[in-house]
Amino acid sequence: MGEPAVSMSTLPPDLLPAPVNVELTVRRLGERTCVICVGTDLRHIEFPGLEDAVRTLLDDGCRDMVFDLTFLRRYETFALVRLAREWDQLAAAGCTVHIAAREARVVADLERLDGTVGWELHPSTTRALRALLSEPVA
User: Rounded distance, CA 46 to CA 61, Å?
Assistant: First the structure.
């Protein structure tokens, strides 16, 4: 009697777990504070929806924002640059802006941007919220 043979098999493509796709979401945390989760994809054709969400928040009095890029896996550099310019404009308008990003490519692209003022980059949403909420209220 020998030992049972050990074999490996692969799952057919239709049995592999589907990659998680996270959509744009907004969570309000009081009157002035919100977390905007950009989702797993950021492309220039989806950018108007993100801009509309931000404008709605501004119209509702939200001025303290955390942009959550921790789920971001696929993006166009052009769309990321547009988003960073949006953060610059929000900061210039008196909003407090914190960014959470942990994927190495996203962080490297954000750190390479010149002229970014008024927003801070953090390795997690928790740290971004902690930094935002520890600031003095104006």
Answer: 24
Of residues 97, 103, 93, the one with CA closest to residue 124: 103
∠ CA 55-113-61, nearest 5°, is 20
Domains and CATH numbers, the chain: 22-134 (3.30.750.24)
Summarize pLDDT for 26-83 with one digit per residue, the tens: 999 989 999 999 999 999 888 899 999 999 999 999 999 999 999 998 999 999 999 9
Distance CA 135, CA 81 (A): 26
- The number of beta carbons lying within 10 Å of the beta carbon of residue 62 is 20
Closest CA to 131 of 94, 7, 47, 121: 121
High-pLDDT (> 70) share of the chain, %: 82
pTM, to two decimals: 0.83
Burial label for 75, CB within 10 Å (0-12, 13-18, 19+), is buried
